[in-house]
Amino acid sequence: MTPTITGFRASPDRGRGLARDMRVRWAFEEVGQAYDVRLLSFAEMKEPAHLALQPFGQIPTYEEGDLTLFDSSAIVLHIAERHVGLLPDDANARARAITWMFAAVSTMEPTIVEREAAFFLERDEAWYEQRLTAVVGRIRNRLDQLSRHLGDAEWLDGGFSAGDLLMVSVLLRLGSSGILADYPNLAAYVARGEARPAYARAFAAQLAVFNASGAA
C-alpha cells in the first residue's frame, strides 16, 4: 500500500522547501519509497476530518493502512526504521543517528523558529530589536556548538543519516538570515544536503505544488 501524506495546497514558504512535509518527501526519496500527497487548504486543516488525524491542525500527516502518524520528525523516523538508507545497521551508530534526529528538532530548531515568530508577530513592537538580538545570540551559541562538533567532517556521525536529513532541514530555515555565512563548515554541510539527488527530487515535487497553486 502506498503511504499518503498531507501538505499545503498553497505553502506559506513560497516554494522554498521549508514546509515540514518537505522533510517527509525527502525521506521517501532517500529510501526509494513511492508516496501520495493529499493537499489541504488552511481551512481544511482545521476541519474535523483533518483534526482526527492531526490534533493540532498542522501538516504533514502520514496514512498507510490502519496506521496514522503526525509530526514530521516522527514520520521520518518511521520511514527510516522501515526502509534501508537512513539509519546505519550497527546498533550503536543507529542510536547515535536517532539522537541527532532528536537534537535537530528539540535543541536546534526551537530557537530558529522563535526568530521567525518574532519577525512575523512582533517586529512592530518597540522592544523587537532587543528581543531579536537576544534570540540571534542563542542561535549563534547553538551554531557555535554544532560547528565545533562537525569540524571538517562530511556528516554528523559517519555516513548520511536521518539525523543529517533533519539537521539540514532545520538549518535551511536560516537561509534568509545570512547567519550561516559566518559558519563556513555548516554552510557547506547544508549545501551537501541540498546537492543530494533525493533532496532535489523532493524539492522539485514541493515546488511544483506551489507553482500549481498560482500563489507565486
Word description of this protein:
The protein has 216 residues and is α+β, with helices and mostly antiparallel strands. It has two domains: 4-85 and 198-213, Glutaredoxin, CATH 3.40.30; 91-196, Up-down Bundle (Glutathione S-transferase Yfyf (Class Pi), Chain A, domain 2). It contains nine helices and four strands. It has helices spanning 21-31, 42-45, 48-51, 72-82, 91-122, 128-150, 162-171, 184-195, 197-213, and strands at 4-8, 36-40, 61-64, 67-70. Strands 2-1-3-4 form a four-stranded mixed beta sheet. α1 links the parallel β1 (4-8) and β2. It starts with a strand and ends with a helix. The mean pLDDT is 93.
Oligomeric nature of the chains? single chain
Radius of gyration: 17 Å
Number of helices: 9
β-sheet strand percentage: 5-15%
Number of domains: 2
| Poorly predicted parts | none
Classify the helix fraction into a percent range.
Answer: 55-70%
CATH class of the largest domain: Mainly Alpha
Distance between the termini: 34 Å
Average pLDDT across residues?
93
Major sheet characteristics:
4 strands, mixed
CATH topology description of the largest domain: Glutathione S-transferase Yfyf (Class Pi), Chain A, domain 2
Summarize the helix and strand pattern as letters. Answer: EHEHHEEHHHHHH
Q: Please list the strands of the largest sheet in the order they lie side by side.
A: 2-1-3-4
Structural class: alpha+beta
What spatial form do the alpha-carbon principal axes imply? Answer: globular
SS elements, strand count: 4
CATH architecture classification of the largest domain: Up-down Bundle
